[in-house]
Amino acid sequence: MSRDPNCIFCKIVAGEIPSTRVLETDRAVVILDINPVVKGHVLIIPRDHYPQLRDLPDELAAHAGSLLPRLARAVVSAVRAEGSNVIINSGGVAGQTIDHCHWHVIPRFDGDPVHWPWPHQAYSGDEMARTASRITDLLDPA
Ligand code: AMP
Ligand code: ZN
Question: In ligand 1, which atom is closest to the CA atom of 19?
């Protein structure tokens, strides 16, 4: 079990810091976010410490992903929401504040304070094809 002694989520997983848990599995705990974007907002926290999404083993990502439909149904029903967002902030530039990779499941209501969509950009010339080909070339073998 990998752990960072200075990590708040490792401490939550170990029970050294209190949390409000809604689900526990052998590889992850799911807690209420202490400062929810919308009330009912939960965090899926892998028990093992991996700083960012890119660091996660595939099987751990698959396990956390397998919890999403069930959690989305329960979260949305519990607060009588109309939909939900799932997000991982990976890296400080993307808004990650706790460097222990985790998923946010956020219930959504018509007229809630969250603003979506984000602004969009446009590709020019062959930029889209070149970008796709760079990504494809850099994918690790499956
Ligand atoms: P991120 O910015 O993606 O790293 O998300 C970190 C999240 O953890 C934020 O939404 C915080 O509100 C939440 N958070 C921070 N400390 C605690 C805590 N002790 N218990 C529950 N949630 C927390
Ligand atoms: Zn950690």
Answer: 20
Burial string for 33-43 (b: 16+ CB within 10 Å, else e) reads: beeebbebbbb
CA of 139 to the centre of ligand 1 (A): 30
pTM over 0.90: yes
| Range(s) of the domain holding residue 38 | 8-138
Biggest CA-to-CA distance, the chain: 54
Q: What is the pLDDT of residue 108?
A: 98
Q: What pLDDT is attached to residue 20? A: 98
- CATH number for 85: 3.30.428.10
Q: What is the pLDDT of residue 1?
A: 64
| Number of independent structural domains in the chain | 1
Ligand 1 center from residue 8 Cα (angstroms): 9
